[in-house]
Design a protein that fits this description.
Elements: H1 2-17, H2 19-32, H3 37-54, H4 62-82, H5 92-111, H6 117-126, H7 134-153, H8 155-163, H9 165-170, H10 175-216, H11 220-245, H12 249-269
Helix pairs in contact: 1-11, 2-10, 2-11, 3-4, 3-5, 3-10, 4-10, 5-6, 6-10, 7-10, 8-10, 10-11, 10-12, 11-12
């Protein structure tokens, strides 16, 4: 037991502390019906890292992180400007997919110039959570606490633009501004976690627990609790499985999350969910019309 704890201590702490904010943001993403925006932003962040590597910076250096952050902010601007503004025959999800594909292709082209390009591509996909350091965990956790505080303070605005954008606009909320702030904070979270867990794990933590929760509940508090439990249990099982069978850690957690989604979907088929799309107390409503 002491051996597994010495190896898995900080990966376990990272996988228990950090996904909490991802699950919460995943509920917003699922309700907005832009499921692949996190994947696209993660890939844009990775493109920034690829540029940093091409400029001979280490992947985990401060310069590489700032480069990723800058690219992520550009992605945030793009997604803010394209929400509900494009032609009705071109949904935002299509534009998000295009951003993802182009960013991925550019990353491949850039890393083809690097001697360790293939290894870096693998690392950006599945991450290196097994090698996470205590400093990296606490630094990222502090950032997430800051993002969570902003979301809590302005929760009425964020819930309004995600869950009821038409109503928010009618009540005078500056939807585009709050949308941009949402994507900037979202980009901070995604960029930080990509450095630890890779693109696939970021996507899985954001979407799978949120979808599992939506299968079983409507009320916001229940959605959050179910999502957090799903992420926690999947992390523990995935980490133990990766240690026991010598699997890549990130990929093992993703597979366990996939199994959790399958089991939840089967359970939901035999359980009648209330027809109301959302209970009244689930969404904090804006109280003022100030911008």
């Amino acid at each position: 037991m002491s051996e597994i704890w010495s190896v898995m201590q900080w990966p376990l702490i990272a996988c228990l502390l950090l996904p909490g904010i991802l699950v919460y943001l995943g509920l917003h993403i699922v309700r907005r019906e832009i499921i692949f925006v996190d994947l696209a932003l993660a890939q844009v962040a990775t493109l920034g890292t690829c540029v940093a590597i091409l400029l001979h910076y280490e992947p985990n250096s401060t310069q590489a992180y700032l480069m990723s952050l800058g690219f992520t902010f550009i992605g945030a601007i793009i997604f803010t400007l394209t929400r509900n503004r494009g032609h009705h025959h071109v949904p935002q999800e299509a534009l998000i997919g295009i951003v993802y594909v182009v960013a991925a292709a550019l990353g491949i082209l850039l890393l083809s110039r690097s001697a360790e390009g293939n290894e870096e591509l693998r690392r950006t996909l599945i991450g290196d959570v097994l090698l996470v350091s205590p400093q990296q965990v606490w630094r990222t956790f502090a950032l997430y606490v800051g993002v969570a505080v902003v979301h809590f303070v302005f929760r009425r605005k964020f819930f309004a633009i995600s869950f009821e954008p038409e109503r928010a606009a009618a009540e005078g909320i500056a939807v585009r501004w709050w949308d941009f702030l949402f994507y900037v904070l979202f980009g901070l979270v995604v960029t930080s976690f990509v450095q630890i867990g890779g693109v696939l794990l970021v996507f899985s933590y954001l979407i799978v627990p949120a979808v599992c929760a939506n299968f079983l509940a409507n009320k916001l508090s229940s959605l959050l609790v179910i999502g957090w439990i799903t992420a926690t249990v999947a992390s523990i099982i995935g980490l133990y499985g990766s240690y026991k069978f010598d699997f890549p850690t990130g990929a093992a957690i993703v597979c366990v999350l996939g199994a959790a989604l399958l089991l939840t979907g089967l359970f939901a088929m035999f359980r009648r969910k209330p027809e109301c799309p959302c209970e009244p107390e689930a969404i904090p409503r804006p109280t003022t019309n100030t911008k």
